[in-house]
Amino acid sequence: TVLGFWAGHRNSRIRVILARIWENDTELAISNNRISRAAGELVYQKRFYRTKFCICPGGSQVNSARIADSIHYGCVP
Asked: Among 42, 54, 70, 74, which residue's Cβ finds the most Cβ atoms within 10 Å?
C-alpha cells in the first residue's frame, strides 16, 4: 500500500511546489508524467487501488476526473 499517489504534469505553481517537497518521499508515488489511460488503464487503476490518499492538485484545467476516479477506486482524494 502506498500512502499517496499523484501522476501529472507540473503545470501549475502548486504542482511544482508539491513535487519538490514530495519527490524523494518513499511513502508517496509521485510521477511527473500522466499515465495514458488508453495505453495503461490497468496501471492507472492499480495505482488508485493500492493508494490510501490520491493527491489532486489544481492544474491547467478547471475540470478533472481525478477526484471522481479517486472515489470510484476507493482512494481518498
From this structure: 54
